[in-house]
């Protein structure tokens, strides 16, 4: 507990390039660093014998350096290999733990490598489909609805405002009579104009 009394309180603590507010608890503050989850933060604090309930603003410079050293090189903390987030890296063959911007960069490289090698996963990534064998019959759908239109019949085409009185007329069941009616009305209108 000497780290609480020897150093004054800091409002912002910088760990591995991340600014963490000093009022955060140790556990929550460390999980703000991308690549460090709850379990990894707990393991770091237990290895260094730091109270997880104290505020992160009370850390000394030595404790910050010790935390950064464990985060960047977790092999020194004797963490098991399954604890790391990148085991058996394809390029190096080593067990790594990626942090911050390295995570999306490596993910993009992995997907691009699968596309170039034309693997099945690469094809699925290219098509925007699920990659890990999930069902796609009901879930994972994108875009508009596909299927039968509601109501059973196609919706009538929208008419302009000048056709409003004609649209209000009751439909007749006799189709030939309906076609003949407009033809008869047209010559009568021409006669009135003359």
From TrEMBL:
Biased composition (Gly residues): 141-150
Single GO term (MF): rRNA binding
A Pfam family the protein falls into: Ribosomal_S13
Keywords: Ribonucleoprotein, Ribosomal protein, RNA-binding, rRNA-binding
Annotated GO biological process: translation
Biased composition (Low complexity): 151-188
Region (Disordered) location: 133-194
Keyword Ribosomal protein: yes
InterPro entries tied to this protein: Rbsml_uS13_C, Ribosomal_uS13, Ribosomal_uS13-like_H2TH, Ribosomal_uS13_CS
Domain of life assignment: Archaea
Family under the similarity heading: Belongs to the universal ribosomal protein uS13 family.
Described purpose of this protein according to its UniProt entry: Located at the top of the head of the 30S subunit, it contacts several helices of the 16S rRNA. In the 70S ribosome it contacts the 23S rRNA (bridge B1a) and protein L5 of the 50S subunit (bridge B1b), connecting the 2 subunits; these bridges are implicated in subunit movement.
Subunit comment: Part of the 30S ribosomal subunit. Forms a loose heterodimer with protein S19. Forms two bridges to the 50S subunit in the 70S ribosome.
Protein's name in the database: Small ribosomal subunit protein uS13
Provenance organism: Nitrosopumilus maritimus (strain SCM1)
């Amino acid at each position: 507990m000497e780290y609480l009394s020897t150093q004054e309180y800091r409002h912002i603590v910088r760990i591995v390039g991340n600014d963490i507010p000093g009022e955060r608890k140790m556990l929550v503050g460390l999980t703000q660093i991308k690549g460090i989850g709850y379990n990894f933060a707990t393991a770091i604090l237990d290895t260094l014998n730091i109270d997880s309930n104290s505020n992160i603003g009370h850390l000394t410079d030595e404790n910050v350096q010790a935390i950064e050293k464990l985060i960047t090189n977790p092999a020194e903390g004797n963490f098991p290999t399954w604890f790391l987030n990148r085991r058996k890296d394809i390029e190096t063959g080593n067990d790594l733990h990626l942090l911050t911007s390295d995570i999306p960069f490596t993910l993009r490289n992995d997907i691009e490598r699968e596309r170039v090698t034309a693997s099945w996963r690469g094809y699925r990534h290219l098509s925007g489909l699920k990659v890990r064998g999930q069902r796609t019959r009901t879930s994972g759908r994108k875009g508009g609805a596909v299927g039968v239109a509601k109501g059973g019949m196609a919706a009538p085409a929208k008419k302009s405002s000048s056709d409003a009185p004609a649209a209000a007329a009751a439909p007749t069941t006799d189709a030939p009579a309906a076609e003949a009616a407009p033809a008869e009305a047209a010559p009568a209108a021409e006669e009135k104009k003359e």
